[in-house]
Write a structure and sequence with these properties.
The chain is α+β, with helices and mostly antiparallel strands and 146 residues long. It has one domain (5-136): Immunoglobulin-like, CATH 2.60.40. The protein is built from 3 helices and 5 strands. It starts with 11 loop residues before the first strand and ends in a 10-residue tail after the last helix.
């Protein structure tokens, strides 16, 4: 057992596991297909995600775990281990999203879809136009959409 993170300095291949068991109290307006993303400050380019839960869930159980590896413990990593945190973000969609056919979504594609959605949410440029977004959110009928 390590008493001080400084003892790890220079160490190679540090493995650790992140567990995401569940979330609770998602608002009814955003409780469809929930998923969680997270990232580490020392690994800013990587965003990790749970698979998307298909359906409506205000208290979703993800039972997700992922092993991560830090290649080399640098002074910046030591500082982050001592003072930092992991950023977790919980996402969900309006219940109208549940009306879409989701049986064709493959489990392996769910994580990639979650990454794309997160990039869309953080993007300054819209990825889809307003009419398409309205259709997805159930605000416009598909047959009557222009």
């Amino acid at each position: 057992m390590v008493e001080d993170a400084e003892e790890l300095l220079g160490m190679k291949n540090l493995f650790f596991k992140v567990f995401i068991r569940s979330a609770s109290g998602l608002p009814k307006a955003l409780n469809c297909n929930p998923f969680v993303t997270y990232q580490f400050r020392f690994d800013k380019d990587a965003v990790y995600s749970t698979p998307e839960m298909v359906g409506i869930a205000s208290n979703p159980g993800f039972n997700f775990e992922q092993v991560h590896k830090i290649e080399e413990i640098t002074p910046d990593v030591v500082k982050e281990l001592k003072e930092g945190s992991i950023s977790f973000m919980v996402y969900g969609y309006p219940p109208a999203r549940n009306k879409l056919d989701q049986t064709s979504v493959k489990p392996d594609a769910q994580a990639e879809n979650a990454f794309q959605r997160r990039r869309t949410m953080l993007s300054k440029e819209p990825v889809i136009d307003a009419n398409e977004e309205a259709k997805i959110l159930g605000l416009k009928d598909n047959e009557n959409a222009e």
